[in-house]
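re: ur msg from earlier - yeah i can do the FE2/S2 (inorganic) cluster complex, just paste it... oh wait u already did. ok heres what im feeding in:
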Amino acid sequence: MSESVNIGTVEDIDEGEAKVISAGDNGTGEDIAVFHAEDGNFYALNDNCTHETASLADGWIEGTEVECPVHSAKFCLKSGTALCMPATIAARTHKVEVQDGRVLLFPNVSAAV
Ligand code: FES
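and the outut:
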């Protein structure tokens, strides 16, 4: 079984907001952003935009997409797919589960699409 990181309760991240789990805390070597999307679900992507350097957690969530705050590329929160220029490389996904009101991040386990 994969190891998970308990990142808090569902109330800790408001819908439309994101929380960064630092590389040191998640063990992957990259910061991970956990998003509470407008569909009510939680999704996780590597926080750094695949275009240049920007925190996707600082971007804008619309539905199940996030828009980069620097050059406005959009990524699908479910698959990590880059949906528009200037990003062409998908963001890496990580599995997130909610169990008994706790949000569990599974670093290095891809989200099932
Ligand atoms: S840094 Fe994100 S679109 Fe350029």
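cool cool. Residues 5-106 form a domain with the Rieske Iron-sulfur Protein fold (CATH 2.102.10.10). ping me if u need the other ligands too
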